[in-house]
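agent: user wants the structure for G/T mismatch-specific thymine DNA glycosylase from Cimex lectularius. delegating to structure tool.
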Amino acid sequence: MGSGRKRKNMFDGMSEEEVCQLKLPDRLRADLDILVVGINPGMFSAYKGHHYAKPGNHFWKCLYLSGLTPRQLSASEDETLPGLGIGLTNIVERTTRSSSDLDKKEIQAGAEILVVKINKLRPKIAVFNGKQIYEVFSGKKKFNLGLQPELVQGTNYTHIWVMPSSSGRCTTPCRAEDKVPYYVALKKFRDYLNGHLSEIDEKELVFAPLKMQKIHKNEYKESLYFKNQLNDGDDKCLDRKKETLTKKPKQK
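agent: tool returned. relaying tokens verbatim.
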């Protein structure tokens, strides 16, 4: 009962059933550089009407720290992303409390709709925001993170990129700064496709599962995080060895 009342307060008195009826609109236009794909809207984002709105999600911070956005945007500004060449969508449009509430049929149907959407809009890169999201889309279990060897089905132009989840609940990697190198590499690949880089080493674009290759170290140090612009004091990280919940101290 207490949990239900707490959630009602979170949604200004709306019940979970009412929130799950809300739709989260895509943020799209044709010929995007990057189309970010989630699995389906969570209740908090659907309630707010904006993507990746839940406090603790690293998406907006990682976009900024990698240089994909000129400043750190808030979720309420998600409508401005297409103007920067970045779009937002989900495989399934139905809002649920958890992605585990989705069934295989609607995921398969959503994946087919996504392919049609990609063929119509022609983004240069389809970015799956989470390893599990690409698993349900592709049916694959074993693949590297970062750039994939194949293009989106039916296209000869849309590359596939797999990110670790931007969710703050993702424990591998768990901190925003540990996810930034994937976004830095994505930006570099985007710049290459747009003709701003004459050549690129594919090794810089492929990451072993759940690990970050050392090849990104120098670029990562050039990111805003290493220029003391990141304040990640509210991020909590699970230390499996010590099995304790630790809190990263705030920068001075």
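agent: one observation worth passing along. The radius of gyration is 18 Å.
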